[in-house]
Design goal:
Blueprint lengths: L1 H24 L15 E2 L4 E5 L6 E5 L2 E2 L6 E7 L5 E8 L3 E2 L1 E15 L13 E10 L10 E4 L19 H9 L17 E3 L26 H9 L19 H9 L21 H9 L19 H12 L21 H8 L2 E4 L3
Parallel strand pairs: 1-7, 10-11
Antiparallel strand pairs: 2-3, 3-4, 5-6, 6-8, 8-9, 10-12
Helix pairs in contact: 2-3, 4-5, 4-6, 6-7
Length: 360
């Protein structure tokens, strides 16, 4: 009988101990959210991350409940791409699951540091120190880079040369310019990606196209016939009074500038060139080109309008007209244009079709 009572008493004590242990394990420290036995709630989409203006620390709230740091979430930080910002990474734990990032500005918050006091020399008001805190900033969407496509417009000769310092003929100049004339549906040599746009001329061509001229010395069998016809159609060349174009003549610097600015010419006001006068036939054209920064002349304050122009000088002026100054192409197809030539970058810009990040 005693043995039976002892067994019953031991069983009652064991059940009581288990119940006490179960009750003890469900107690939570004061100030924490109860731990649920259910599956964690995914929080990122519903979490609001703000900054306490007093402490400068992030605060996280989900559906009106303020979460507790190190119980419901932990924080980590990483530098952002932009200077002066940082990204807070919230990793949810406990009753919550998931992760959320948000970008903040980093701002200095001045605080007063009491002076250490001391005898002898008198007081002093306390030094200033700086505490780094966070300020909320609206996250910005990722911006895809924008590229501009530059079409090649010079070709050189069959022997692999460009002859940069040789004079250029009127036919050759017309051929160069015809390759950069805008069309209604521009089609580049190489198909660019969707975020690549074509470079266009900064000066619009005349809206009313004149009737193309049939020059007496330009035949359909000539290699430059198509280029001269295109330029004539756009009103960029007019030829001479006798009906000729003189395709094999060297083109002068004034004649090239006239091709570029014809149809959008402004009245002469003044230029810094001591050899360009208002009573000359090319004065308005040179003024227009100078005003729009297509040309800059020589170091002795001359433009030398009636001098024949070299092939390298032609490329430099056309690049200025097109606004092509990125010089991102580094491929050199010409064996006679070294990196020591003054127009090296200008020639390479015009020689190979390429794209560059324009950021616009």
């Amino acid at each position: 009988m005693k043995r039976v009572l002892a067994i019953i008493l031991a069983t009652i004590m064991t059940v009581g101990a288990i119940a006490y242990a179960a009750e003890a394990t469900t107690e939570q420290p004061e100030g924490t959210n109860p731990v649920s036995t259910e599956a964690p709630t995914t929080a990122p989409d519903e979490a609001d991350i703000t900054v306490d203006p007093e402490t400068g620390e992030p605060e996280i709230e989900v559906k009106g409940t303020v979460l507790v740091k190190d119980v419901d979430y932990v924080l980590s930080y990483k530098d952002n791409v932009n200077v002066g910002t940082a990204t807070v990474i919230v990793t949810f734990i406990g009753n919550y699951a998931g992760m959320k990032e948000q970008t903040f500005n980093i701002i200095p918050k001045p605080t007063t540091k009491p002076s250490s006091g001391g005898g002898g020399g008198g007081g002093g008001g306390g030094s200033r120190s700086t505490r780094v805190t966070l300020a909320e900033v609206t996250p910005q969407p990722t911006v895809e880079p924008v590229y501009t496509y530059h079409e090649a417009y010079i070709k050189g000769y069959d022997d692999g040369t460009f002859k940069p310092d040789a004079y250029i003929t009127r036919a050759e100049a017309a051929a160069m310019l015809s390759r950069v004339m805008p069309t209604e549906t521009p089609v580049p040599t190489a198909t660019p990606t969707p975020n690549v746009r074509l470079s266009t001329t900064p000066t619009p061509i005349p809206t009313v196209k004149p009737t193309p001229k049939a020059f007496t010395d330009v035949k359909m069998t000539d290699w430059y016939y198509s280029a001269v016809s295109t330029m004539s159609e756009h009103g960029m060349i007019d030829g001479y009074n006798d009906g000729s174009f003189k395709p094999d003549n060297n083109i002068t610097r004034a004649e090239l500038v006239t091709m570029l600015t014809r149809g959008n010419t402004e009245k002469f006001v003044g230029v810094p060139f001591n050899d360009v006068f208002s009573n000359r036939w090319y004065a308005d054209y040179i003024y227009t080109a100078y005003k729009h920064k297509y040309i800059d002349g020589y170091g002795d304050s001359t433009f030398r309008p009636e001098n024949p122009i070299t092939r390298a000088e032609t490329v430099k002026i056309i690049n200025g007209y097109l606004g092509r100054n990125d010089y991102s192409n580094e491929e050199n197809p010409f064996k006679d244009v070294s990196d020591e030539h003054w127009a090296y970058k200008e020639v390479l810009e015009a020689a190979i079709s390429h794209k560059y990040e324009s950021g616009e």
